[in-house]
Amino acid sequence: MMDLESLRGRLIVSCQAYPGEPMRDPRTMAQLAQSAVIGGAAAVRVQGIADIQQTRSAVEVPVIGLWKDGHDGVFITPTLRHALACANAGAHVVAIDGTRRARPDGLSLEETIHGIHSASHALVMADCGSLDDALAAVGAGADLIGTTLAGYTGEREKTAGPDLQLLEQLSAAGMGCPIVAEGRISTPEQARHALDAGAFAVVVGTAITHPASITSWFVGALGAE
User: Is the whole-model pTM more than 0.85?
Assistant: First the structure.
């Protein structure tokens, strides 16, 4: 089982591409992960079974794996079946929807986390949207708490950058497990602010690994259509 201390104060890079994009290929995502590790990433986060397998073979840092199925509601590794597939593909940590919403397979969050722990050596990262989500996820046995879904579940307003207020709330609540800042972190300064607000580690994805978005930011700044 991986040592979470290796992630303390460090950067995790999310290497994902949307369906239909030119870079939506497991080998490409693994190469992105390799590049991120060269730059100093302490871990990587990838989506899809093939991506997990390719990336696990390409890098020596911990791999956080997930499986997105759908687009609305609970779609980040939504069932125990999805989670175990990620673990079996080689994920050191399986990221799952960690909200209090009903899961498609009818299992509770606690049952899902217990199922992952019982059937694999993988840790569980609960992607949460609020303080109440996080408290429930910790009670259910999650090993890490992510702010991934803050602003996307209707419980909190979507902030322009990272939800620093939520990070401060989680830190003040004494969660008892690492808090990972994720979501809308676009600059090194925002990553630093997330750590200062109480994050154990910081995930950055789009601003590092999504050329289409990065390009559009520059195009927008130039006022081009």
Answer: yes
